[in-house]
Structures are given as C-alpha cells and as structure tokens.
Amino acid sequence: MKVMLIRPPARFYAGGMPPELGLPLGLMYIGAMLERQNIPVSILDAQLGRIYQDSRNTDYKNFGMNWDDIAGKIKENKPDIIGISNQYTAQLDNTLFLASLIKKIDSSITVIAGGPHAAVMPVSFFTAKAGIDAVIKGEGEYAIPRLVKCIQDKQDIADIPGVVTPDNMGKSKPAETIGNLDALPYPAYHLIDVESYFSIVKSGMDGRPIFSYPQVERCVSMITSRGCPYGCIFCSIHLHMGRKFRKHSAEYVIAHIDYLVKKYDIHH
What we know:
three-stranded antiparallel β-sheet; alpha/beta; globular
C-alpha cells in the first residue's frame, strides 16, 4: 500500500501578500510515523514553485506548482492513498480541487484530508462532493497508519478514532490525544528538499516579513508542545490539538535542535 502526502498550492488574494512558506511539518510527522510502520510514503509539497494567476477565479493567485505538474507527479508516483493537508479554511478551495483532480486521474485512489480545518469542520469536505473518502479530525500520527492498515486489510475505517467518513458523520469516535510527544519520531526531513525552502525565502517570493539579522536565511520552525487550556476567542487551536497542554521534554527538544544544526546546517 503506497501513500502520497500532498500540500496543495496556497491561494491568496491577487492584490495581497503571498502566504508564508514553512516546512510541511504535519505531513512530515505523518510521513515519519508511516515509515516506522514500513509503509512506503512520499511527500509532494505543491507550495514549492512560483506565483501564478488562478485560472478558476481571477481574484486569486496561487503560490506553488501548477495543476498539470501536480497531476504528472501523481501519475508518476501511482499511490494507492493520498493524504491532503488543509491548514487553513482559506485554502479549502484548492484542497477540494486537488481531490477532484486525483479522482479524475484514478478513481480508485483513496483520498484523505487532514489539518486544522479538517478538525474543526470535517463535514465541509463531504458536502462539496469533491471525492474525499475520509477526514482526519485531530492529530493524525496514529490515526493515519491505522487507517492505511484497515484499507490494506479491507476493514471498516469508520471505527478508527478521529476518522470521519460520509457514513459516520456526527457519530465518529473522538480523536485520540497523543500524551507522550517524545514517543514521536522527528519529522521526516529526508522526504522533502529542505534547501528549496531556503531558496524561495531568499528569492523574496515568501510572504513573511524580511528580517535583517545574519543567518536568518536558514530558519525552520519546530513544534515543541501541543494543546492549550485557554479560551482566546480568536484562536481555534484547542479544536485541533485539544485543551490539554502537552510538551516534549527538554532533552528531546535539545536533541532535535542538535540534529537540525548538524544534519541541515540550520541557523535559527
């Protein structure tokens, strides 16, 4: 059973600032967990590319690969399952379009959606009838390997905690919260081209503010904790990661930083 994880091109208003480009950490954690189970997996970050006009709506532009190139990668890879990352509600349209594109390429491919929007509004993926077969509601590191195994063994996926399907909407089991974060492997940095992100940031295409201090050009984000007990009205993190605060140990974080510095020459 072959899995492909895709982050779609990022959509933004034609007159606005392009989105910030960071590593697809969610997919990289999922990829690492799938590899731990000896499941073949690849990551296609379709936000690595250029800025171009969205042909479906002239009010928007896309940041990343064009749809023909994405289709070509899918045909070349021939996956059995494709997981799509949908970080923000504003990016839902591109996720749905990608799902429809996948089904046109090969209707037998199982399409899964995940990410913060999926955790908050899983039903929105099904009402659009774009061909999405399942949604991961919450953390996916344990749910997705179980889902892949169920598909491989031709078992019902609707009983997996955190998995929402068209058949179990409203009655799906709650997602399992990962208590021991140190049990997770590092994100699968080897499944992406880390240097490509630095090149795009250096070129000025990235939408983040330009910092002036030395060596910021080799900068990555890390996740050192999950969950939040507070109730800020502008934030939905507790809907995705729960209200229970969990953290990596200091030893895990330091070892992770050391790995990034030595392996990838990270400066910040």
